[in-house]
Design brief:
5-stranded mixed beta sheet; 4-stranded antiparallel beta sheet; about 25% helix
């Protein structure tokens, strides 16, 4: 029989005993769930039993196909890994009390097992000197390596960054780094008969010359670079912050709100020699009203008439739309507003330039890139040049073409939204 005892304080007491099926059965593992409601015991007779923690009542049991050698639990996920005498590993879910995974591949007795902190991987070590990593969601082996001496015990760090191992006939503890945390590793499924690569044991010093020679024959695996657009069927957004484009159409409101109530007043400048005026009553100092007005300060505001095209306008006319979009991304909201205003014929632009801008918008709608920027730029352009668009018939045809492209783009976005919402609703109804 197996006896559970609470000791170490004055209130020590025996909480209970769990009887086994027959006399002489050895307990190979004990685990308790995260809520301390269920106790799981595994015996050498191949039976896993579930006990009620408070009243010691037997709730359920599972008869395995062979004898049990070892058991390890992961309380946070409610899973238990059991090593069998036939060198296989079985994973049991404590909530449903059923076998959910079975892994086979070791050629000798399993010494130790460990779950990753997120319970995605199960790492096993056996007397065949191999360490295998099993992916629980896919039920496949994703990594395997061999060591000179068999691993007798292993454990993962709380954040999953390191794996600590102890080896046969060795008094040292070795740390292995998890490469998936700082580089891209393709975790593809490996066949059970994969020949493991013998790894060099970590040491206190690293011979860089020898390590370089060993790595010359290894394939170089470059870092993963995300493409600009995953698929032509998807709408891709730019990665610009919302403050760069969301308030483009409200710039006039923002400027009016931030405008000071009273204009700053400059102190009156007193000249060194005060002007005098001679009258019948004698000479006296002249007042500002009596001056001839020749000292009026000229306005320093630049009138944007008859000026050349801006660099952005030149790119639009040359249909270099990629460079034009890159330039707009680097400008602030006020600079973008100034660029768009200078496209009007009254400020150095032309009707042809405005038509080219519509082609620029149509190009990016067809490319399905920078979708939110295109919508913000188009809204600002229509607001700034509304009078010009109404009074020039040459722009009406371009507007009709752009309207068709805009409607098509929004219909595709709406379809993608509805498709995603339907999938989410289906998952909720199925309780997945």
């Amino acid at each position: 029989m197996h006896r559970s005892r609470w000791s170490g304080t004055a209130s020590s007491r025996v909480t209970g005993t769990w009887p086994w099926r027959r006399r002489g059965t050895t307990v190979r593992g004990v685990a308790v769930d995260a809520l301390n409601q269920v106790t799981v015991t595994a015996g050498s007779d191949g039976i896993v039993k579930f006990w009620k923690f408070d009243n010691l009542g037997l709730m359920d049991n599972i008869e395995m196909d062979g004898y049990i050698a070892k058991m390890v639990a992961h309380r946070e996920s409610g899973m238990v890994a059991i090593a069998m005498d036939d060198f296989s590993v079985v994973v049991i879910d404590l909530d449903i009390r059923r076998v959910i995974r079975k892994f086979a591949g070791h050629k000798n007795a399993i010494n130790d097992m460990a779950f990753s902190p997120d319970a995605r991987w199960l790492i096993t070590a056996a007397m065949d000197s191999t360490v295998r990593t099993w992916d629980l969601p896919s039920a496949k082996m994703v990594d395997i390596f061999a060591t000179e001496n068999a691993v007798t015990s292993l454990c993962t760090s709380p954040n999953g960054e390191f794996l600590a191992t102890a080896h046969l006939d060795d008094v040292a503890v070795y740390l292995w780094s998890n490469r998936t945390l700082y580089s891209h590793v393709a975790l593809t499924a490996l066949p059970e008969d994969t020949v493991p690569t013998e790894m060099e044991m970590p040491g206190p010093q690293l011979n860089l010359e020898e390590r370089t020679e060993d790595m010359e024959g290894e394939p170089v695996q470059g870092s993963y670079v995300s493409p600009d657009q995953i698929s032509d069927d998807l709408v891709t957004l730019s990665l610009l912050p919302e403050s760069r484009w969301a308030n483009l159409v409200n710039l006039d409101i923002i400027k009016e709100r931030n405008k000071p109530r009273e204009a700053p007043k400059l102190p009156e400048k007193v000249p060194f020699f005060l002007p005098t005026v001679t009258t019948l009553e004698g000479a006296h100092f002249a007042t500002p009203k009596e001056t001839d007005g020749t000292d009026k300060v000229q306005s320093k505001v630049l009138k944007l008439t008859n000026v050349d095209l801006t660099p952005f306008g030149t790119l639009i006319m040359d249909e270099n739309f990629a460079e034009a979009m890159s330039m707009l991304k680097q400008l602030g909201p006020s600079a973008i507003d100034a660029e768009f205003r200078q496209m009007s014929p009254d400020f150095g632009g032309s009707i042809e330039l405005m038509q080219k801008f519509f082609v620029f918008i149509h190009h990016w709608l067809e490319m399905r890139k920078n979708f939110e920027l295109v919508q913000a730029y188009l809204a600002l352009f229509l607001k700034v040049h509304d009078e010009t668009l109404i009074h020039h018939d040459e722009l009406h045809e371009s507007l009709r073409t752009l309207e068709t492209s805009q409607q098509k783009a929004w219909n595709e976005v709406e379809m993608l939204f509805h498709q995603s919402l339907s999938v989410i609703d289906f998952i909720k109804l199925q309780g997945l």
